[in-house]
């Protein structure tokens, strides 16, 4: 395993760990929201439902991108064109990672008034999630 493969492998391990934690949090927070969350104001409940839904969807998207990336690395002869596709997939994965943190995280923080200014990061998070989907399309176009 060369140096760049080792770096990508460490990144994949980190991102797979994030997927596990994010997925578990989504399930647990959804359960909390269904029960104890009923005491929140309607707007707060709505905001949290959106945050959890976006977190669930993009955690699954991130998982799929990581599996696709891992299978590509394991089963392909790497050439210049494939390297560009691999990097586009890696960028997509990090966009989903950052988008989950900034979009859903901002809505969580805003709702619980922990750090209200974090709510201003939600548009950045949403844009980052959209960029993740676009980079997925770029990666597909770069394949032979």
Number of domains: 1
* Major sheet size, sense and barrel closure: none
Tally of helical segments:
4
Q: How confident overall, as mean pLDDT?
A: 92
Instruction: Report the principal-axis shape.
Output: elongated
What are the segments in which pLDDT stays under 50 over at least 5 consecutive residues? Answer: none
What is the strand content?
under 5%
Count of beta strands: 0
Report the end-to-end length measured between terminal Cα atoms: 25 Å
Structural class: mainly alpha
Secondary-structure element order, N to C: HHHH
Written account of the structure:
With 144 residues, the chain is mainly alpha-helical. Helices cover 83% and strands 0% of the residues. The chain contains four helices and no strands. The protein is elongated and about 55 Å long. The model has no long low-confidence stretch (mean pLDDT 92).
In short:
The chain has 144 residues and is an all-alpha fold. It has helices at 3-35, 42-75, 80-111, 122-142.
Keywords:
144 residues, mainly alpha, 4 helices, single chain, 0% strand
Topology summary:
Elements: H1 3-35, H2 42-75, H3 80-111, H4 122-142
Helix pairs in contact: 1-2, 2-3, 3-4
